[in-house]
Amino acid sequence: xxxxxxxxxxxxxxxxxxxxxxxxxxxxxxxxxxxxxxxxxxxxxxxxxxxxxxxxxxxxxxxxxxxxxxxxxxxxxxxxxxxxxxxxxxxxxxxxxxxxxxxxxxxxxxxxxxxxxxxxxxxxxxxxxxxxxxxxxxxxxxxxxxxxxxxxxxxxxxxxx
Length: 161
Known about the structure:
The chain is mainly alpha-helical. It has one domain (28-154). Helix 1 crosses helix 6 (141-157) and helix 4 (78-102) crosses helix 5. The chain has helices spanning 10-20, 25-47, 60-76, 78-102, 104-129, 141-157. The chain is built from 6 helices and no strands.
């Protein structure tokens, strides 16, 4: 291989494609808020599913899903994998706290409400931008969105992803 050839990591290809659909500043700002909100709401909704086996507690399905997603992120980028692990830990703690404070039923309704409002915001951002959401091309971009937002934070802090 020649020294002028650079290897492009899969995460960089995903981010380049995702960024093409998110050029507008307003749409990017909406995504920075709405994407983590959607991710939390999915965790909360999974948290509310009954465990089915008495050995497990509420949250087991969310834990399985977060672990699977974390494996995906960690494989693409170890630094982003660590950041997503921290984010998932915080989301899990938040769900446990909310379950204890407001009850599982209210956590479910809160998760549904956040999910709906955040998705409406996303589609408003894309309408304003004039481009369709990336996940309509490839469902993998549903997982890329949170990593893209986290990578924006990493760049702002001067960290490599």
